[in-house]
Design goal:
The complex is a heterodimer. Chain A is an alpha+beta fold. Helices cover 40% and strands 12% of the residues of chain A. In chain A, strands 2-1-6-3-4-5 form a six-stranded mixed beta sheet. Classes of the chains: A alpha+beta, B alpha+beta. Chains A and B meet through helix 8, helix 9 and helix 10 of A and helix 1 of B.
Chain lengths: 665, 80
């Protein structure tokens, strides 16, 4: 279906693995305008096709792989692609964003998105080259680790000619094949890590997809795009976060700041500080272990680390992995974390969920709920490596750990310290010292995710020193950040570019009067933010330098876009995902955190050091135009242009059937 | 004695992880910044633009230091 907009290839293809048939999926310009791309586009497609009784591991479930209009446009940090599906980990929508080069090559093959449904009777891999889709027998590569299978696929593509076309790949490892609920999809060394997308791919008997092509990506106004690009890259390189901290230390650089702020998950979130944090900090990683910085295609930030594992240069751990496999399990051995991070990537599973489930098991063992032999501060690194393998192959205790902490706590007890929300484990930031993020974790559409949750920790201690404990204005701020990130993600750009949203002087002069005044003012600006959230159209212009995304979207696509309409687009996406999730039973009661984080103060002497969740939820739902039960109201759906979508009219009868309150409250 | 620890990109730029100094050399955070600048040959402004934590609690440039204190200098961070 051709398009009048730039930045799009104008084609979405669907393959049914049950029959091997391919077909073009209808996607109109009106849908491009409303749902842009990435996770919002994927949500619309899944919303149109998933029924309330669809099971994650079923032929009806789809893997929807989407790009955005920025993907392949040359815009900074825009090689991203998104994978969405009904998650086997949470039972609701999940979306996982990935770097690497697959998104770029998907567009070179002429596709904006690829939809995979059905289930192949035998293991297969899919080769896409421009319009040609070929399914190959995968019996010889089934069982391979993620790095090895990519090498073998490169050889296969090289074939007899001896030269492989430039291509992108996504693969799964043993964890995906064995349906570990938090198995990932891997592309190069990057992962669509969260939500169990790899298990859905494994269930479909699809080991890998390779994609190549030679189509041109046309932009609406290439001159302008180049112009903005130049100044944007310059700005990102000069910004203290995107031009200094991230390139020098990567996300790992947060460990020490989190420690100082009491935000570093320690011993399965019993505490927020780890006495040996220096040994597993970003500084130690950079000084003693980092070989070279690396980045995704077209990224000037280059936040990735390369480290040495068994004499091989491999991708280093991110902050979440360092936090959860360091202080989270009381381990101060950095080399062990590097080794485990590599093993988990090779097995193809999410380091966050794997580590957090392990920490839960250790605490359950310590408390005598589950005799599993796992102990905090376990000095035997090989034993932990064995656990990862047991999870990936579902052997022994690994078979249970493969189901995640929610499942384990339902079986053995300990729900109060199973650190997840909606079945997805939290990401190393201890929310009792960043209560805004606590709200974000709980209401996040895909479960306990810091980014989908709005990443309030950025202003609550990491970059700025807004009061970490006050709930004031946090719900409104959370909505702003969520919508902003939703929009950026839909464009196909890395969320890390949004950290440059705060002007450099504010970040680099934390002791200046203006930074202090801003931090002090934040808890009082809730009503202002509420107004902006309700009427974003009042910002009917673009904000140059600090927020180039809206102008860039306009020049890439030709759509009229302002900062206000960009924010509304993000809001539309966020509420759309929520609306679809209500079909799978999500209500206010699903937006929870374990009681350790809401009822037990981190500092026993300070009752404020816990997450005042219910109170913030009320304000948040109101700001979003959702009912007190957390369900988007008909009025809100209409405001966002979602009311006309017949498939989204989840009836009040359906809600009543589930015993939830109706959406009209 | 006062323990000064440096984190963030400034630590990588200066190669200085921190110092152990006697209280007579540094009476307050401002003095600690000057000392770090002298030790590393960098502008004192860079140190003054850090976030200060004294024994785990937020501090200011004018905060006095006491014997046994641990002063941590952090740079703003983001991205996870
Ligand atoms: S900032 Fe990091 S994750 Fe984002 S695109 Fe760049 S290298 Fe990739």
């Amino acid at each position: 279906m051709a398009t009048k907009y730039g930045g799009y290839m104008g084609k979405v293809m669907m393959i049914d693995l049950t029959t091997g048939q391919t077909s073009e999926y209808p996607w109109s310009d009106e849908e491009r305008r409303l749902f842009i791309g990435g996770k919002i586009m994927a949500a619309k497609i899944l919303g149109d096709n998933l029924k309330s009784d669809t099971q994650p591991l079923s032929e009806e479930n789809m893997l929807v792989i989407t790009t955005g209009p920025f993907t392949g446009s040359g815009a900074p940090s825009s090689s991203r692609f998104n994978v969405s599906t009904l998650s086997p980990q949470t039972g609701i929508l999940t979306s996982s964003n990935c770097g690497g080069n697959f998104g770029y090559y998907l567009k070179k093959a002429g596709l904006d998105a690829l939809i995979i449904k059905g289930r192949s009777p035998e293991p297969v891999w899919l080769e896409i080259c421009n319009d040609n889709f070929t399914l190959h027998d995968a019996s010889d590569i089934w069982g391979m680790h993620t790095g090895r299978v990519q090498e073998v696929l490169e050889d296969k593509l090289r074939g007899q000619s001896g030269r492989a076309p430039k291509n992108g790949k996504i693969v799964i490892g043993p964890a995906g094949e064995n349906l570990v609920r938090y198995a990932s999809i891997v592309s190069n060394e990057r992962l669509a890590g969260r939500g169990g997308t790899g298990a859905v791919m494994g269930w479909k008997n699809l080991k890998a997809v390779t994609v190549s092509g030679n189509r041109q990506i046309k932009l609406h106004n290439p001159e302008k795009v180049r112009e903005i690009n130049k100044s944007w890259v310059k700005y990102l390189k000069k910004h203290p976060l995107t031009g200094d901290q991230l390139p020098r230390l990567g996300t790992a650089g947060l460990v020490s700041t989190m420690q100082m702020r009491g935000q570093l998950s320690t011993k399965n979130y019993n505490y927020g500080q780890y006495e040996d944090y220096e040994k597993v900090s970003g500084e130690t990683l950079a000084e003693d272990f980092n070989i070279v910085n690396k980045g995704c295609l077209t990224c000037p930030i280059k936040c990735a680390r390369t480290v040495n594992v068994n004499g091989k240069a491999v991708k280093g751990p991110e902050l979440e992995t360092l936090g959860l496999l360091g202080g989270g399990i009381l381990n101060n051995d950095m080399q062990a974390i590097l080794d485990w991070n590599y093993e988990l990537d090779e097995l193809g599973m999410d380091t966050i969920s794997a580590a957090s489930t392990l920490a839960f098991a250790m605490e359950a063992n310590e408390k005598g709920l589950w005799d599993n032999g796992l102990e905090f501060g376990e000095g035997d690194n090989a034993k932990i490596s064995q656990i990862w393998n047991d999870i990936a192959y579902r052997r022994g205790i690994g078979d249970e750990l493969a189901n995640g902490s929610r499942w384990c706590s339902e079986k053995y007890g300990g729900k109060e310290f199973a650190i997840h929300s909606k079945g997805m484990e939290l990401a190393a930031y201890e929310p009792r010292r960043t209560v805004g993020l606590g709200l974000g974790y709980a209401v996040s559409n895909r479960g306990g995710c810091h980014l989908n949750g709005g990443y309030m920790v950025l202003v609550e201690g990491l970059s700025l020193a807004v009061n970490q404990q006050t709930p004031h204005a946090k719900p409104d701020f959370t909505m702003v950040f969520q919508d902003l990130m939703e929009g950026v993600s839909a464009c196909g750009q890395c969320l890390f570019t949004t950290y440059a949203f705060f002007p450099p002087p504010v970040i680099s002069h934390p002791n200046s009067w203006y930074t202090k005044a801003f931090c002090k003012a934040v808890p009082f600006i809730g009503p202002v933010l509420r107004g902006m959230n309700m009427f974003p159209q009042i910002v009917c212009f673009n904000i140059p330098i600090i927020f180039n995304q809206s102008a860039m979207l306009h020049h890439i696509t030709g759509m009229p876009v302002t900062f206000g309409s960009f924010m509304r687009m993000g809001e539309r996406g966020y509420t759309l995902e929520r609306h679809i999730n209500t079909r799978f039973g999500v209500t206010r009661r699903s937006d929870t955190l374990p009681s350790r984080l809401t009822d037990v103060p981190q500092d026993p002497a300070d009752d404020k050091t816990r997450v005042p969740l219910e109170r913030m939820k009320n304000v948040y739902y109101h700001a979003r135009g959702w009912s007190r039960d957390g369900i988007p109201t008909p009025h809100t759906l209409k405001k966002l242009g979602l009311d006309k979508l017949a498939s989204y009219k989840v009836t009040q009868e359906e809600f009543r059937k589930r015993g939830a309150a109706d959406g009209d409250n | 004695m006062v323990t000064i620890k440096l984190f963030g990109s400034l630590r990588l730029k200066t190669g200085c992880k921190g110092l152990e100094v006697s209280l007579s050399d540094v009476r307050d955070v401002k003095g600690a910044c000057q000392l770090l600048a002298d030790e590393t040959g960098r502008s004192v402004k860079e140190f003054r633009n850090c976030v200060f934590m004294i024994n785990g609690k937020p501090g200011r440039l004018s905060s006095a230091l006491r014997d046994g204190d641990e002063l941590v200098l952090l740079a703003a961070a983001g991205g996870g």
